[in-house]
Design goal:
With about 240 residues, the chain is mostly helical. It folds into two domains: about 35 residues; about 200 residues, no CATH class. The protein is built from ten helices and no strands. It starts with a helix and ends with a helix.
Length: about 240
């Protein structure tokens, strides 16, 4: 009986060890894609969006003629990593950058923004991509297109568009839609604050609402990969839209 109990104990320990090992390996794979620390950023994407803009404009050495997607991306990543290298882990961000390049290669996104229409064309392309790849529902796609059209047509003032954006928070979305809505509305509101601060005004090629929409569009795109990349893309889209 003692031997039987001993064997049972050994078997239990072995099974526990195997289960723990498999669990750890699964967690390691998940964490390699998106570290757990990033979950804390989901409700601070808007806050760090404005931080990224401040860091860029306070430290930027790029000439206007050198402003393009890659150069701005590298400047923003460098600024954020220097600001907090634990929250903005360079190794992880480099992985996102490679993944993002693959996604962008399949999208008709223009970074030669000459007008508000350039921005709304980009957002429409992103909305269609997200819907076609089952990242967002048809209902959310429709509401985002409505906001996009309102900015393009200029039939609402800035406050009315902001209300339209915030109305997204009053819908009972599924979990995945809710994450995209969270990022989009956070960054739209933060950008609205940022660009309505006289100290932050830049000469732009698009309307004020168009520039704010560009920020939110970048955040929407970046969330395909992670909250950190949402912050980075929101800032990239913003800087390019605001380039003199």
């Amino acid at each position: 009986m003692f031997k039987l109990k001993s064997k049972l104990k050994i078997a239990v320990v072995v099974m526990f060890g195997i289960t723990t090992f498999m669990s750890c390996n699964k967690d390691a794979v998940v964490n390699d894609i998106q570290p757990n620390s990033e979950n804390n950023l989901k409700n601070e994407i808007g806050k760090y969006h404005n931080t990224a803009l401040d860091l860029y404009y306070n430290n930027n050495k790029l000439k206007s003629s050198d402003v393009n997607y890659k150069n701005v991306r590298d400047e923003i990543i460098s600024s954020l990593v220097n600001y907090d290298n634990e929250l903005f882990n360079k190794t992880q961000i480099d992985k996102y950058a490679l993944q993002s390049e693959k996604i962008l290669s399949n999208l008709k996104i223009s970074f030669s923004l000459k007008s508000t229409k350039s921005i709304t064309d980009n957002l429409l392309e992103l909305i269609n991509y997200l819907e076609q790849n089952n990242e967002i529902s048809v209902e959310l796609s429709s509401k985002l297109k409505n906001i996009n059209n309102s900015v393009l047509e200029g039939n609402l003032n800035s406050s009315e568009i902001l209300n339209l954006v915030n109305d997204l928070n009053n819908v009972n979305w599924n979990e995945q839609d809710a994450e995209y809505v969270n990022a989009f509305t956070q960054v739209y509101n933060s950008s609205y604050e940022y660009w309505n601060n006289p100290q932050n005004l830049k000469s732009t090629k698009a309307s004020g609402d168009g520039v704010i929409l560009a920020d939110a569009a970048g955040a929407l795109y970046g969330l395909i990969l992670s909250p950190v990349w949402s912050i980075i893309e929101g800032a990239i889209f913003s800087v390019i839209a605001n380039n003199k």
